[in-house]
Every structure is written in structure tokens, then in C-alpha cells.
Amino acid sequence: MRIRVLGAAAGGGFPQWNCACPNCQSVREGNDSHQPLLQSSLAVSANEKDWYLINAGPDVHKQIESFTALHPGPGIRETPLAGVILTDAEFDHTIGLLSLREGSCLTIYGTETVRKGLQSFFPVLPILKNYCSWEWQFLHPDNRKRIGPPGIGKEGTILIETVPVSKKPPLYTQSNKEENVPEDFWEVGLVLHNERTGKCLAYFPTLERITPAIEACFQKADILMVDGTFWSETELVEMGATKRDARSMGHLPISGPSGLAEKLAIYSAKRKILIHINNSNPILKKDSMERHTLERLGIEIAYDGMEVEV
Questions:
Q1: What is the pTM of this model?
Q2: CATH number of the domain encompassing residue 228
Q3: Do β-strands 271-275 and 299-301 pair in parallel, antiparallel, or remain unpaired?
Q4: Which of 6, 44, 3 lies closest to 148 in space, CA to CA?
Q5: Which of 249, 209, 205 shows the shortest CA–CA distance to 85?
Q6: Which tens digits make up the pLDDT trace of 213-261?
Q7: How many domains does the chain have?
Q8: Which residues form the domain of 14?
Q9: DSSP-assigned letters across all residues of 174-189
Q10: Average pLDDT, rounded, for the chain
Q11: Residues 73-87: pLDDT tens digits?
């Protein structure tokens, strides 16, 4: 199973040109010690022919253009893109669905809670039906989902395990007080199983806390690709950007007691990779102390174009 990082950033891409944080300012001044990133997304394939996007954000067109395996053709409206798998209903992971409307058919995989959100609060699905046909395939924590072309067998398919992460709804659900916000989990993580090799990758672009269910996934995964949004608990508070700390925004910080770096040390995965990195995070600076700290711990930092095999 081949997995390519199409984007590794959080919050709509890096740099943000209206942002005054030191990292974005440095990039605007031409400092090449920073790596610009697109919005977090993966492309996954078990057969090098049928590809699935995990999340579709505002950068989806750039991401498809950057990866030749996703280029359309040779037939009219022919595409190697077989579907989109959603981990939540946030703008940053779903707004790109509107850019994929030019396909003849779109298969979307996600939970019932996410489907309801995209049907009402952010009505992507009603909008899409006027441009293309789409089919929703449900993901549920109690049932693993095998995706791939029909009749191809286990070697050409991907087995998806869905893991609850957070009940925190997107901010846009607060704009309509008349509708009830579902109380089920809005955010999930995914474990992608290659049944041919017996290996798996755990993908958690957002991580509020490590529950027993998430810990069980981390213990068995060969590769961990997890939420690296913030370096510290008060990163944005100290910048004056918000009054909310990292955990209240649904992200376990990397540093500090009980931070993600400390927790990752106990797992035996061959590779531990941070993704979904906010533009304020000092690990984006290649020569930073924070980045060197992670490198000494054997923790990698995702970048656009990074590839792994499972």
C-alpha cells in the first residue's frame, strides 16, 4: 500500500499571508529554512491504479496537480481518483469536495455525523448533486470497511478501521441555533490495513487525547502519522491570536508533561510522523531547537510529497 502526503499543514495552508507569526513572516521574507506546506491530506492506493484522498481541503487542485498518479485521463472525465475518505466535517478537510464536482461520480466515505453536517450545516452534498452524482459509504467504529474495485480481492483493497477521536463539532455548526448538533463523534482517526503484508498505518490528523481505543491502535501500528498542530499548550495565546489553548481547540500539544512527544516514546512503531502542522509551530523551521529535539527522539515531520509504504 502506497501512501503519499499531499499536504501536511493545518488551518488552510502555510504560509498564511495575513498572518503575523514569526514563521509566516520569515517565509514572506524569503527564508528557505522554512518549508511551505499545503493543507493536510493523503493519497492512498493498494494497487497503484485506484487512489483515495483522505480529506479534501482548499488546496485539492494543487495537490492533484503535484502528483502525476492523480492526473486525469486518458478518457474524457476519466480519473484515477476512486473516492474521498473524510476524518471530520471541518472546512479544511471538506471544502475541496466542491472542487471535485467535475468528475462523473464521487464516492465519499465518512461517519453518519459527518454526513449530517455536510447535508445541513455546510450543505456540500445538496450542492454537489446539481453537478455530479455522488454516493456515501458509511464508516463506523464497530465495522471495518474494505475499499477498492469490486472483485479485485484483498491484495488490491484497503481495510479501514475507524476510531472515535472527538465530539467537538465544527465552529460553523454554531451559526444555526435552530438545528440540533449531533452528539456523536465529529472527528475520527483511521487505521489503514494492508492485508497482504499484515502491516498498518494509524492516521490521526487531529488528536484531542489518547483514549484506550486510540492507544490500542498506536500499539499495533507500523507507522504512526499523528496530529502535530501545536508545539506548546499556549502557543497561540502567547502570540495574542486567541484566548484558547491547544487542548481546548482539540489538539494535544507536542511538548511538555503528557505532551505528544513524551507519549509517542512508548510505542514501538518503526516510524513516527507528525502531520497537520500549524503555521505558528516552530518545528516548521528546519534549524529550530524544537525540530532538532524531535529528530533526536526519532520523530519525523511530514512534508508535502513525503511517501511511505505499508
A1: 0.90
A2: 3.60.15.10
A3: parallel
A4: 44
A5: 205
A6: 999 999 999 999 999 999 988 888 788 777 778 888 889 999 988 899 9
A7: 1
A8: 2-309
A9: GG-TTSPPP-S-SEEE
A10: 88
A11: 777 667 899 999 999
